[in-house]
Amino acid sequence: MNSDVFLQLTVSGLSNGMVYALVAVGFVVIFKASDVINFAQGEFLLFGAYLAFAFIGQFGFPWSVGVLATLLGAAMIGLIVERLVLRPLIGEPVISMIMVTIGLSSLLRAVVNGIWGARPKAFPNFIPSGEVEFLGAVVGIDRLLVIAIAAILLTILTLFFRHTRDGIAMRAIADDQQAALSMGISIKRVLAVAWAMAAITAAVAGIILANTVGVSHDIIFIGLRVFPVVILGGLDSVPGAIVGGGVIGLLESYTAGYTTSGLELIVPYIVLILVLMIRPYGLFGKEIIERV
Amino acid sequence: MESGIFFSDYRSDMALRRMPLQKVRTGLLLVGLVVFPLLANPYWLNLANQIAIATIGAIGLNILVGYTGQISLGQGAFMAVGAYGSGLLTVRLDVPFYFSIPAAALITAFAGLVVGLPSLRLKGLYLAVATLAAQQIVEFVVTHWDGLTGGTEALVVPAPELFGARMNTDGRFYWILVVVALAVAVFAANLFRSRVGRAWVAIRDQDIAASAIGVNVFGYKLLAFATSSFLVGLSGALLAHYRSIVTWERFTIEVSISYLAMIIIGGLGTISGSFFGATLIVLLPAMINTLGRSLQDTAPWAATVLPYVQQGVFGLVIILFLVLEPEGLAKLWRNVKDYFRVWPFSY
Q1: How far apart are CA B14 and CA B6, in angstroms?
Q2: Count of CB contacts below 8 A, A vs B?
Q3: Searching chain B, which residue's CA lies closest to the CA of residue A98?
Q4: The domain containing residue A99 runs over which residues?
Q5: Which of A60, A79, A176, B63 has its CA 20 to 30 A from that of B23?
Q6: Contact B315 A108 (CB under 8 A)
Q7: What share of chain B is helix, strand, coil (3-state, %, to 5)?
Q8: What is the dihedral of CA B239, B242, B245, B247, to 10 degrees?
Q9: Is A152 within a domain?
Q10: Within-domain flag for A248
Q11: How far apart are alpha carbons A42 and A220 in whole angstroms?
């Protein structure tokens, strides 16, 4: 086995995995706060990428302002979606929640297509690309930067859950909704914060993807790739999302590197099924015991 | 309920259609189904055939999702198994279609059993995600197993023959589809008056209670997967012979989603809802298309945004139904019936 190739695959796998982790964290935050699986996460990603394209590429903002504007825009969308679509459905059965986010994904996709068209866009990259020597192998500098950015963000998020008022309120609601309500926690506020956060993390991932793979429609498929990540890590665990993202990213990268015939497309799903059969709550998820 | 109606034997009391108005409506429906192809042009016949196929698939999905409460995102995969099963049997082994279609449905039922196995341990969201994975894996197998399915190339299925006549027009295929769809609807309606159907409903409403009263939860869940997949495979197989071309693009996750939309919009756990939902989801894009074309002269830009409008309206319809009328079109239809039952003397 060639160790250079191995290291390259590791770096590219990790950088993909960190993008997955960012998307997955948004997913987990929503699930923790409201037990909703958000099928529109891929579309949030798409929206983030296209918003960044609009601000930086079309309006010509400097990238720092553009990124800030994108994050603000994403938060707005998250808040609007929560208020108009999710809040009327609090307490409805699982299938309604799944379907409403699926309907949302279709609607968001149509809006993005309607505004920007279906063609891929040229994005003015601001994450420097180029190659550097790293531990004896040549790897893309943008890959390393992506890993660093994601690591910083994920650390901030973890600290948010540990130490801030809203973060702790979110954990309380995830633990026991009724008890949290009786302690005076506003579930509406927490839900709004959760959706805004999910949209923001997805937008960050969208901006990264815009830089590394370009702004196009294919970004949506990342949304589906997140399911293996969250199931592996545990649907309600932020560290789980990070570890799961890394593992799935590496797995894909190694399969793509060492086998042919596009097997990397389904390896995550095979892992998903195995995890579901053996340990449905994932590596770090809360184990719910129910006997039927 | 209409008043003043008495039954003097159990048979008429337990009939599927027992009220005079119900019988009138059923009669009207049957007459309508017979008269329709005599009046309709090929465009409408084509739509009617699509609706019939979608209705069969939606009833199948409704058995699993609406009645048994097991959420499945694998509809597209099951339809693919049915379509490729029947198509390959016809093309490779020269099996006539009236054998290959039931055979393909049986194969799909078996596939459903396999996919249903995780339901032993998984419910709700987790099961939905497991079926999503099954969908992706089946898609991968279909597109990569070149030796069997021809990979991404289209599989061409010859037009079926029945009583020496080639069923290659919309008008002729209509009769096959209508008969099968009616049979499926009657079968499903009767199913839910039987032990099996009631066990499924019990599992949906409260699985622990169901097992406490002696329902074999896992066994009935598997049976639901098999029965549902049988019907879904049937609709996939019919689609293969109707379209005479099988390509994997017809069986993606989008298909799973649009079928889920059908039963949500139509009404979970209702047979009539499956039909209403299928009708709406088939007609909606067609109507938007017609609208767009009629606008072509006044607003040429309309044609370019048409696909997005279809997509957006699809999503919007799902959201609006879930927020405003979660019980779907079946409930609306019931409201209409209730209103006219004692009309014009509502009070």
Answers
A1: 12
A2: 126
A3: B125
A4: 3-278
A5: B63
A6: yes
A7: 75, 0, 20
A8: -10
A9: yes
A10: yes
A11: 5
Distance, CA of B256 to CA of B236 (rounded, Å): 12
User: How many residues belong to chain A?
Assistant: 292
State the ipTM, two decimals. 0.82
Sequence-ordered strand ranges (E) for A93-225: 131-134, 137-140
pLDDT tens sequence across A63-76: 888 888 889 999 99
Place of tokens 């679509």: A85
Which of B180, B318, B302 has the alpha carbon at shortest distance from B236?
A: B180
Q: What is the pTM of this model?
A: 0.87
Per-residue model confidence as pLDDT tens digits over B223-266: 999 999 999 999 999 998 888 888 888 888 888 989 999 999 99
Is the minimum CB–CB distance between B120 and chain A shorter than 8 Å? no
Does the residue A33 lie in any domain? yes
What separation in angstroms does the CA of A8 have from each of A150, A244, A265? 18, 20, 19
Q: Residue B233 has what pLDDT?
A: 93
The answer to whether A111 touches A121, Cβ cutoff 8 Å, is no
pLDDT of the residue at B58: 93
CB contact A276 to B (< 8 Å)? yes
Is A163 inside a domain boundary? yes
Tokens of B20: 């005079």
Spatial CA neighbour of A24 closest among A239, A176, A217, A263: A239
Q: What share of chain A is helix, strand, coil (3-state, %, to 5)?
A: 75, 5, 20
- Determine the pLDDT at residue B63: 92
> Residue B1: its pLDDT value, please?
57
Q: What is the pLDDT of residues A120-172, one digit of tens each?
A: 777 777 777 677 776 666 777 777 888 888 888 888 888 888 888 888 888 88
Tell whether B284 is within 8 A of chain A (Cβ). no
pLDDT in tens, A233-244: 888 888 888 888
B257 and chain A in contact, CB less than 8 A: yes
Find, among B250, B237, B226, the residue nearest to B180 by Cα.
B237
Q: What SS3 state is found at B92? A: helix
**CA end-to-end distance (rounded Å), chain A:** 49
Residue type for A277, please?
M
Average pLDDT score over chain A: 83
| Of B118, B140, B312, Cβ closest to residue A107 | B312
Burial (CB < 10 A; 0-12, 13-18, 19+), residue A264, is middle
B166 burial (CB, 10 Å; 0-12 / 13-18 / 19+) is: exposed
Q: Are B110 and B77 in contact (CB under 8 A)?
A: no
Q: Is-contact B261 A98, C-beta < 8 A?
A: no
CB < 8 Å to A37, chain B? 125, 128-129
Q: Does B189 touch chain A (CB under 8 A)?
A: no
A276: chain B residues, CB-CB within 8 Å: 118, 121-122, 126, 129-130, 133
Instruction: Give the rounded distance of the alpha carbon of A200 from its chain centre.
Output: 9
Question: CB of B232 within 8 Å of any CB in chain A?
Answer: no
Residue A286 DSSP one-character state: P
Q: Which position has the token pair 């799909």? A: B108
B297 to each of A201, B291, B293, B302, B303, how far by Cα in Å? 44, 12, 8, 9, 10
Name the pLDDT band for A289 (thresholds 50, 70, 90).
low
Total domains, chain A = 1
Sign of the CA dihedral with B319 first, then B321, B325, and B327 last = negative
